[in-house]
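Reminder to self: tokens first, then the designed residues, so the page reads top to bottom the way the pipeline ran.
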């Protein structure tokens, strides 16, 4: 049986980190309160998507496929409709190079600041299991960071060679 802890905790932590979500792409045309509301809506849609996926997995594990399907369909609506439209309004999506640079920035923060601090704080608080998990997540994020950097390098080299 899949456990919530092993499957989804890392994603829930990442979504919780969306508190400082950058919606600078929308700042030129939206009122400050609207931007704050948009940040809140993005966090809520992302969290709801993951939560409903958790609920669907739990229902599948309990062999309640009809319940699982309802949660999975609703989760997809949260992600592919609501979150997508809000992300577009927020200006979160750019071209591939912009998206890779944004991903590199986020992964760098996750590796160098967020998970490092989380692990230290958990260990200081006596929560060794959480500290180990945060360190594991830090290593995963580092792998993502290297991958994004490699792909960005490939794209930039391809652009340079095609412009010659």
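Designed residues (164 positions):
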């Amino acid at each position: 049986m899949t456990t919530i802890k092993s499957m989804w905790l890392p994603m829930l932590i990442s979504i919780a980190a969306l508190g400082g979500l950058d919606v600078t792409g929308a700042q030129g045309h939206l009122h400050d309160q609207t931007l704050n509301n948009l940040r809140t809506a993005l966090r809520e849609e992302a969290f709801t998507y993951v939560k409903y996926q958790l609920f669907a997995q739990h229902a599948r594990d309990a062999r309640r496929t009809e319940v699982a399907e309802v949660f999975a369909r609703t989760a997809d609506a949260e992600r592919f409709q609501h979150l997508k439209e809000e992300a577009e309004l927020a200006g979160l999506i750019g071209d591939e190079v912009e998206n890779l640079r944004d991903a590199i920035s986020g992964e760098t923060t996750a590796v160098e600041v967020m998970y490092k601090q989380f692990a230290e704080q958990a260990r200081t608080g006596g929560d060794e299991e959480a500290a180990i998990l945060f360190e594991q997540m830090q290593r995963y994020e580092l792998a993502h960071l290297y991958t994004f950097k490699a792909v960005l390098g490939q794209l930039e080299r391809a652009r340079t060679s095609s412009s010659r």
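The mean pLDDT is 86.
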